[in-house]
Amino acid sequence: MTPNITNNMIHGPSVGIGAGITVAVILIVFLTFNGVSEQKELMIDTVPRTQETEKAKVTMSTFLENGSPVLGNPNAPITLVEFGDYQCHFCNVFFHNIEDDIMKKFIETGKVKMIFKDFTIIGADSVTASHGAHCAEEQGMFWEYHDVLYNNWTGENNGWASSENLFRFGQEIGLDMDKWSDCMVNSRYSSTILASNQDAEALGLTGTPSFFVIGPDNQVTKIFGAQPISQFEKIFDSMG
Predict the structure, then answer these.
(1) CB-based contacts of 237: which residues, under 8 Å, 6+ apart?
(2) Which of 50, 128, 212, 230 has its CA 20 to 30 A from that of 25?
(3) pLDDT at 13 over 70
């Protein structure tokens, strides 16, 4: 089913990328923890478009697949999809200033459920951080890892999301670090991260955070940037 998308925009997205950026290729680089090769770092390398290709068809799977587990009641009538980058300044602003209100007013009350999808456009640490969250999902702790990442954010490409720090974050939330490290070493979610980036490209996104609100009738409303809670409330309430 092809969704009907409407735009709701006050200002542009937080981080822009050039029109020449297309499908991301994931390269794998070995890093070490305490002198032992235990983890790989994933790096997004962008490839310029050399010829026009057919634009990917947007379906509901473009919004709902290749992302996080659902946060909230899986049967909630409204779905909020965030495309984010863990290094993104305004993604961090959304997390600290807006997401908690959405949680309390809409997710915990069963009206809205949320999915997070990767759009790793800032740097290599963005991809490694995303991989860390997906590996945490294997132990049922995606959202705990998602939260600890934003709670430790200090900027873009300044090293806070290094492999050593990502390992420490996992320890802080109580992950089985042997299992988590094995997941990282084997890059089990490389294809998921790449596919999510391709979904973002298919949707024409140029920055993070970008949101899509999907109503009970599959009507989709697009929101650019870390908008105030009132903007989300207006759209949620309009959907019943």
Answers:
(1) none
(2) 212
(3) no
83 φ, ψ (degrees, to nearest 5)? -100, 115
Per-residue pLDDT tens digits for 72-85: 999 999 999 999 99
Task: Inform me whether the pLDDT recorded for 217 exceeds 70.
Answer: yes
Helix, strand or coil, per DSSP, at residue 15: coil
Q: Which amino acid belongs to residue 3? A: P
The CA-atom distances, in angstroms, between 43 and each of 34, 67, 130, 163, 214 are: 21, 18, 11, 12, 31
Residue-level pLDDT at 1? 60
| Residue 62: strand, helix, or coil | helix
Beta strands in 9-157 (DSSP E): 21-33, 36-48, 78-84, 112-118
Tell me if residue 233 falls in helix, strand or coil. Answer: helix
> What pLDDT is recorded for position 102?
98
Predicted structure pTM score: 0.81
The arrangement of secondary structure in 8-48+67-238, i.e. its CATH architecture, is: 3-Layer(aba) Sandwich (3.40)
Strand partners, 44: 26
What's residue 109's pLDDT? 97
| Paired tokens of 234 | 């207006």
Using the structure block, give the residue that is written with the tokens 């050399």. 50
DSSP string, 157-192: SSSTT-HHHHHHHHHHTT--HHHHHHHHHTTTTHHH
Domain spans of the chain?
8-48+67-238
Using a pLDDT cut of 90, give the percent of the chain over it.
76
